[in-house]
Design goal:
The structure is a homohexamer. Chain A is mainly alpha-helical. In chain A, 67% of the residues lie in helices and 0% in strands. Chain A has 2 domains: 1-57, AhpD-like; 59-130, Up-down Bundle (AhpD-like), CATH 1.20.1290.10. The first copy, chain A, is elongated. Chains A, B, C, D, E, F: It holds the Pfam family CMD.
Amino acid sequence: MTQLIEYEDSSDEVRAVYDDIRATRKTDEINNFWKALANHPPTLQRTWQTVREVMTIPGEIDPLMRELIYIAVSVTNGCEYCIASHTSAAYAKGMSDNMFGELMAIVATANTTNRLANGYQIPVDEQFKT
Amino acid sequence: MTQLIEYEDSSDEVRAVYDDIRATRKTDEINNFWKALANHPPTLQRTWQTVREVMTIPGEIDPLMRELIYIAVSVTNGCEYCIASHTSAAYAKGMSDNMFGELMAIVATANTTNRLANGYQIPVDEQFKT
Amino acid sequence: MTQLIEYEDSSDEVRAVYDDIRATRKTDEINNFWKALANHPPTLQRTWQTVREVMTIPGEIDPLMRELIYIAVSVTNGCEYCIASHTSAAYAKGMSDNMFGELMAIVATANTTNRLANGYQIPVDEQFKT
Amino acid sequence: MTQLIEYEDSSDEVRAVYDDIRATRKTDEINNFWKALANHPPTLQRTWQTVREVMTIPGEIDPLMRELIYIAVSVTNGCEYCIASHTSAAYAKGMSDNMFGELMAIVATANTTNRLANGYQIPVDEQFKT
Amino acid sequence: MTQLIEYEDSSDEVRAVYDDIRATRKTDEINNFWKALANHPPTLQRTWQTVREVMTIPGEIDPLMRELIYIAVSVTNGCEYCIASHTSAAYAKGMSDNMFGELMAIVATANTTNRLANGYQIPVDEQFKT
Amino acid sequence: MTQLIEYEDSSDEVRAVYDDIRATRKTDEINNFWKALANHPPTLQRTWQTVREVMTIPGEIDPLMRELIYIAVSVTNGCEYCIASHTSAAYAKGMSDNMFGELMAIVATANTTNRLANGYQIPVDEQFKT
């Protein structure tokens, strides 16, 4: 189990990232993920910068849909921590129980057809190559 | 390599599914995935019924976003066939190159943080458990 | 691409394994998998010994079912080489097209329910813990 | 953590599935998997229908072997819930401890050779392509 | 949950492996992994022999780096037990916290670029094929 | 198949990254991975910055070992492109054929024990939790 580094115990380098997390998310709460990464400041900085850019900079995919995509990946990989944290984030951004059900149905179906495509060794159609 | 069963050579049972695929998708084209599954009619029927329901019945997630989620899973699993076919489907439903880029960035980031959460053995925060 | 080491070009150490493969499988054919592993003789020896023991020593699971299990894993992992070689082996041991279809249906279903169990964060029932 | 929907609290739609699960399995017990899926009735119905068909309709693969294949997939994916529930189901259908040991050996070996085939970038033999 | 077979309760066959583990590792401690595998002695013997050869026979990759590679695989697969045990082993062999941080950064980055390569369907450069 | 953006056709934004790749790697060659990511400049920039930092900034893990770890992840995930490109990079940095063989043996073994730990549902030893 990794040591979790609290705000009070953080170095200046780590605290700067924590402050940006707090400002970006408009909450004092720092979740365990960042407290664990703080054991290696370059990884903390790089990962937070990436997550912030990818999840919060305005773009063509809206913030809630980004969370759904994040959940889809995390469920496929079976990452318990990420499923819990991003499901929580998605509910906070307006996901309904029904939308979560639809999401799970898509993820389940894609995991099924991925294996059928593998198992039947299906060649890619010419129309999909262009 | 699996034998691909063409429309002309299909049994009544398979042809009924092919006809429904054509009607639902408004095209005569049947892609290789279904032609391969036709070797086992119960799997063809069940899989098509599931895909049709999950991907086309109106719900809270719009059709383009469903394709993005499908791609996210397929990319995470590394399923070449499904990546090619659903990327093609997403473009047909209006995905822009930029949106695809955003999608890839989210998928890449989630795959990164999934492993960091695993590796640092991070306990799930109490706030994410309710 | 790895160099494939042919029987004629093999060292004594590698040739001893090749001879055992030929004797065990009752064919002169050595497939590419072993010709590639021959680049690292300890891996060739260890892997062949394991595969021979696990797949051919008489036990409670019959040889054809062992191949089906091997395919199930390979399809889940998306290993093209292993899917092709073990599907071929299964047909040689008596798998019918219909049995392959049933196998794919089970693999597809398990991949679906694995993700639903992940996504819904379902606690293991007490009855399954004993 | 998903809310688990008990039989007593279920809607007519959900209860109909629960009743079919009870009748098919000849037990009043409904395990947590279904109680979680009940949060999204279409997913509950579709998943139960698929599992029932794939796991219980008579076919060429016997019921115990179907469970072994299910376990092989679940172990490869690392799905804790599915490993626990299907291992329990397999024991109920007559799996011996020794058979479980043989199964694990095959799953372990396939996971090994899948990676060796990937890593050595081994081309598929012509004989496996037909 | 598997029964763990203690040294005192082990058969001669299992005890011989336990003794070799103790001698090789210079400790009386047998960790749960081996106590679980002891339920199927052939798997215990084969797995221990493989782990001992692969992890302890002198070679070109030093013992600590072997542990880092082991962790990289285990983190990618999300195997909680193996992450915990091999992280512990790596610290015992001299891994620093900073080295662990560097390792996690590489694992995270590889998991990211693996998916970008999949998603963008990037053809392998000619220069990488020779 | 993604369009590959050549140096000559690149925007200023993309070209700045290409120039940094060339300078860092001391070669004019830009491999397909970057030419594909160039379709989404923010992903190109972020990914290159991460790869450069993680793989080239001096640290406690030497450059060749970083490549071995990269290969271990890519082989576990089955990413053909990344296996080919990083195996090539590792040979360029001094990997011997024998070292590659040792690496494959470790990756194969870890993939085996990961599944045995999953399948036997082995509880983490107390000694590994601190």
